[in-house]
Amino acid sequence: MAPSIGQCAVAAALAWLIAKDVLGHSRPFFAPIAVVVCIGVGLGQRLRRVVELVVGVSVGVGVGDLLVSWIGSGAWQIALVVALAMAAAVVLDSGSLIVLQAGSSAVLVATLLPPSGTGGFDRMLDALLGGLMGLAAVALLPASPSALATRHASGMFDALADALRRTAEAIERCDSGLAAEALHAARGTQSNVEEFRQALETSREIATISPLHRHRRTRLEGYEKAAVPLDHALRNARVLARRAIVALDGSSPLPPWMPGALRELAEATLVLREELAAGRTPEQAAQAILSVASRQGSERWGFSADVMIAQLRSIIVDLLQATGTEREEAVAALPPLDVPKELAHPKTGQT
Fold first, then answer.
1. Where are the domains of the chain?
2. How far apart are CA 252 and CA 242, in angstroms?
3. Rounded CA separation 149/217 (Å)
4. CB 3.0–4.6 Å: which of 102, 142, 173, 212 could bond 89 by disulfide?
């Protein structure tokens, strides 16, 4: 959070000084507030926040100035002003920031800042100034977009590798309890996915608006290609762990090669993490994944085992796609499976 906090602090002070000393506004508190809302301590959508902030403040101040000058201030006046300002904002755009800013701005006008002269226009100008200062702070005092993406991507890679290793250990020990623990840990990985998505969006935004980091946009391409396949791989790892619980309870035997394949995929996942972090084409990771793919057997083991094999093959395809391989090529890297006769098409022999 340190970069965002520093950006907020510096830009809020500068926005106040410019609005007060350059524009001559006596109490320009909308300017530093706009900075904090624009930058925030979260990730992503700063450009959209600026637009929503300015629109929300404009609606709130406009409605507040118009009504308070007619009906005065008081409890029922505040209720009316807030309701109309927020309703107008919803009509314009249902974005939560627009609606909240419209309501809060209307409250300020109705209670602390009664309308006077050009006050409404000045407040809208302060909000715009604060938003622009926030963007300037992001552009000139930014966190490294590649470092931001790398830090949050590590959580996804580590979570996937951990899920594969835990499942492999459960199979080796024939322990359904360990498989249940692996499933429980894998189910908690969705937060890693969401954090990475937000970090990647913020990284793209920084690389777009910051002249200092525009050259790093190419470093983000590897993460952009890997984001969705990694999400799919984590989902498939959860299904794999869930089916392992059933299989280890005795529903069907499991192929002896599966734990080794899972461990190799876990190691390949970490290699992929390191190659993307270094900005290299993930050739070593792709070779490691292809090695696992080429050794997949075609024999049948029973329903639960076959489901696990299918999930393993899906994870292989997902990881190959994360390296930048096209889906058709990734699927073609897997040897065909034997299809039971009762499932085969009578003419083609395909399922």
1. 2-140, 145-343
2. 14
3. 11
4. 102
Q: Which residue has the tokens 């959070």?
A: 1
pLDDT bin (cut points 50, 70, 90) of residue 133 is: confident
The pTM is what? 0.65
Compute the distance between CA of residue 3 and CA of residue 318 in angstroms, rounded to an integer.
Answer: 33
Q: What is the pLDDT of residues 84-117, one digit of tens each?
A: 888 877 777 666 667 777 777 777 777 766 555 5
| Cβ atoms of residues 240 and 314 within 8 Å | no
- Measured at the CA of 177, the angle between CA 243 and CA 233, to 5 degrees, comes to 40
Which contiguous run of DSSP H or E holds residue 218? helix 217-246
CA atoms within 13 A on the CB side of 81: 32
* 145-343 CATH fold: Methane Monooxygenase Hydroxylase; Chain G, domain 1 (1.20.58)
DSSP character at residue 324: T
Q: Which two tokens stand for residue 315?
A: 């994870």
Contact criterion met (CB below 8 Å) for 293 and 315:
no
302: left (phi over 0), alpha (psi -120 to 50) or beta: left
Instruction: Give the span between the Cα atoms of 131 and 55, in whole angstroms.
Output: 11
Structure-block tokens of residue 340:
């039971």
How many whole angstroms separate alpha carbon 8 and alpha carbon 142?
11
Average pLDDT, the chain: 79
Q: Are 289 and 265 in contact (CB under 8 A)?
A: yes
**In angstroms, rounded to a whole number, what is the distance separating the alpha carbons of residues 342 and 351?**
9
37: exposed, middle or buried (Cβ count in 10 Å: 0-12, 13-18, 19+)? buried
The answer to whether 262 and 303 are in contact (CB under 8 A) is no
Interatomic CA distance for residues 167 and 262, integer angstroms: 8
| pLDDT beyond 50 at 345 | no
Tell me the chain's radius of gyration from C-alpha atoms.
Answer: 28
- Could you report the per-residue pLDDT of 315-335, keeping only the tens digit for each? 999 999 999 899 999 998 888
